[in-house]
Amino acid sequence: MSQAPFPEALQPWAEAHLTEQQWDSLEKFHAILLESAGKMSLISKADIPNIWGRHIADSLMAGVLGELSNSGKWVDLGCGAGLPLIPMAIAFPNWEFAGIDTRGLRIELLLSAVAKLGLKNVKLFRGNAKVLGDLAASHERYDIASTRAVGKIVEDAAMAAPFLHQGGTFLTFKGSEHAERIDGYQPPTYTPYRLPSVDNDLHIVRAIKL
After folding, report:
1. Relative to the CA of 98, which of 82, 86, 136, 198 has its CA 20 to 30 Å away?
2. Quick check: 42 and 29 in contact, CB under 8 A?
3. Kindly report the CA angle at 101 between 28 and 167, in degrees rounded to 5?
4. Which domains does the chain have, with CATH numbers?
5. pLDDT tens for each residue of the chain, 210 residues long
6. Contact (Cβ atoms closer than 8 angstroms) between residue 119 and residue 90
7. CA torsion through residues 14, 121, 150, 146, sign
8. What's the CA gap between 76 and 80, in Å, rounded?
């Protein structure tokens, strides 16, 4: 099993729920990010030595703290380097995942990663989420719509809303940013957690679509 510096809240869950094959896939994805990060500006140079603790572990906190059911449909908006998309798809093979990004090179990288990892539960789309959310193929189809390092909470929630069915969950990763209310959603909840490389509390922010 990997000796990755996972936060204390994640380590017991990871040891109990991830198979050796899933750990191997996470490490392969880590290697893909290391190889590509500098070339494509996927991750800040300061964070490259700590991709495990700052990015892969962070992504999996969405599963640990997200109260997921046994299966469902998840769309990651502005999926960029595939965080949380790829770690979550590895860890939750019964879920169907979709990633959307406007940048063709990012989508090409993720298509290659999905092929190398043999992931059958990930689809990738190049396009503007604000446009794709209103198309019949994606409108109100998903149980969860996520963002990570995209925009402000309220802005991201508005972008996510067309993808979610009533009762679906908008989920995002934030530090100190806080919104008391989001139009079209129940009041958001903030679940704090810590990462080894970050001094302050981080939060999984969730809001249920009305």
Report:
1. 198
2. no
3. 95
4. 11-208 (3.40.50.150)
5. 444 556 566 777 777 788 889 989 999 999 898 887 766 666 666 666 778 878 888 899 888 876 788 889 999 999 988 999 999 999 999 999 999 998 888 899 999 999 999 999 999 999 888 777 777 667 888 999 999 988 899 999 999 999 999 999 999 999 889 999 999 999 999 999 887 767 778 899 999 999
6. yes
7. negative
8. 9
pTM: 0.90
- How many Cα atoms sit within 13 Å of 94 on the Cβ side? 6
